[in-house]
Write a structure and sequence with these properties.
With about 140 residues, the protein is of the alpha+beta class. It is built from five helices and six strands. The protein binds a DNA duplex (12 and 12 nucleotides) through loops.
Length: about 140
DNA sequence: GCCAACGTTGGC
DNA sequence: GCCAACGTTGGC
């Protein structure tokens, strides 16, 4: 467990990485897309998760961790979708912007770049390392 | 079960 | 604010 890594998007106006740091943990609910929900279901405790700010910021800003695997989303009256729980790990040394991600050949096939609207997506090991590297070479 | 219309997301 | 991508809905 804890071998895979992921990326989640959030509008900082709605829920920012700083808010997650302040909260200590949060229920990641409200996902209403089946492809994204499949990724939520595949998450294991200990999996690392890049936290991306959409709409404003447009950058990966921090790392979170899965602390509870998928369970029925309390905010979904139909009972079809799931939520997980996330806890903050650390902010990135410097945010990695979408512009820089698009410029990196290593990230050309990244799921979140290929399918723009996907709010939860898998991150390959080499993609994880590349984004970390970029965050340390601002 | 198809497909047009519509709504939402999210980058620009 | 606009628009492209894409998922969902509803008429047939």
């Amino acid at each position: 467990m804890g071998d895979a890594s992921w990326l989640v998007k959030s509008e900082p106006n709605t829920y920012s990485f700083e808010t997650l740091v302040g909260d200590g943990r949060t229920v990641w609910d409200g996902v209403r897309n089946h492809a994204a929900a499949l990724h939520l279901k595949a998450m294991q405790v200990g999996d690392q998760v890049f936290f991306y700010h959409s709409q404003e910021g447009l950058a990966v800003v921090g790392i979170a961790e899965v602390i509870r695997t998928a369970f029925p989303d309390p905010s979904d009256p139909t009972g079809r979708f799931v939520a997980v729980e996330l806890a903050p790990v650390r902010p990135l040394q410097s945010p990695v912007t979408l512009v820089r991600m698009k410029a990196s050949p290593t990230l050309a096939d990244m799921a979140m770049l290929r399918q723009g609207r996907l709010s939860v997506s898998p991150v390959r090991p080499e993609e994880w390392r590349e984004i970390l590297r970029l965050s340390e070479t601002a």
